[in-house]
Amino acid sequence: TLHTLDATENVTIAAADPSNPRVDRVVVRVRDAFLGDVTNEIDIFVVAGTPTGGATLTNCTGAGAVPGSSLLIANVLVDAAASSIVTAKIDTTGASNNNPLVRPAVGASGASGSSLIGVQILTSSGTYTPTTGTTRVYVELVAGGGAGGGCPAIGSGSAAGGGGGGGGYAASLLTSGFSGVSYVIGAGGTGVSAGAGNAGSDTTWNATTIVAKSGAGGAAGVLNTAVFGGAGGIAGTGQVTSPGGRGTAAINVLGNGAGGSSYLGFGAEQSATPSSSTLTGNAGSLYGGGGSGGQSNGNVGVNTGGPGAAGIIRVWEFR
């Protein structure tokens, strides 16, 4: 989530030491009850340093520690006996680069947290190699979406296929046993000419440790008959799970079924209703979106539902 300030935020710097300079730190603290903090809150405050001879913005000698769950946004040099602080004494250029956002471990608080050091995006199956220094990972999976249903050849009248279901979502925090594990990226379901769409396939981490379930295919169109969309992927295996969205039903003359959405991908949109033609369904959006159904009106041939989108794995790495 992106948070912005709607007004100027003023912070107070404590009075200068009469004999030695010090380096204070301005930080943004993010507290999240889901990750073990006592409340949900974002605030900006100053961590006062220890007055130390020779302290500068370069060496930051005596600077206070950045608290857990906080992001350093500026270092401020408070010269000995200073009565004011000029812009040259405030460093915002290197602060964030040298001190990444610190998150506490789940159930922990304060400075015992761990730092985010990288995010790996995995879109093809393989074996996971963590970034050097990784001690824990938060792994998110999205399964493949289902394809929309196709339509048979019809005479007069209309038919439309149901939308494919969106892929399900699963995630877990792992503190050990994650290096070198195999993972599988679920494929999107394929459309079938004149038939029900194929389901997508599951996305898995270490076979059964984390599993996101795939979306089902939409039903094939039937002359002058409404048909169902495919179910979204059911809740899988993980500390956090969420089903995919269901594909919408197709109501012949009103149009084909739209695909169901996943946690990270939209389902394919419903197509415009043709007066006398055949339309192939649209593909679901990455990642895990369901395809839309095919559609026929008038004396036309068979068509195919749109394919579902493939899944994905996103690995947040912490030290």
Characterization of this structure:
The chain has 319 residues and is mostly beta strands. The chain is 1% helix and 27% strand. The protein contains 1 helix and 19 strands. The strands form 5 sheets. It has a 6-stranded antiparallel sheet, with no helix packed on it. A hairpin with a 4-residue loop joins strand 12 and strand 13. The longest helix has 4 residues. It is elongated, with a radius of gyration of 27 Å. The two termini are 22 Å apart.
Tally of extended strands? 19
User: What is the string of helix and strand elements?
Assistant: EEEEHEEEEEEEEEEEEEEE
Q: What is the arithmetic mean of pLDDT? A: 86
Structural class: mainly beta
Proportion of beta-strand residues: 25-35%
Number of helices: 1
3D shape: elongated
Oligomer: single chain
Largest sheet: 6 strands, antiparallel
Q: Give the C-alpha Rg.
A: 27 Å
Low-confidence stretches: 95-113
Cα distance spanning the termini: 22 Å
Strand line-up across the major sheet: 5-6-19-8-10-15
Helicity level: under 10%
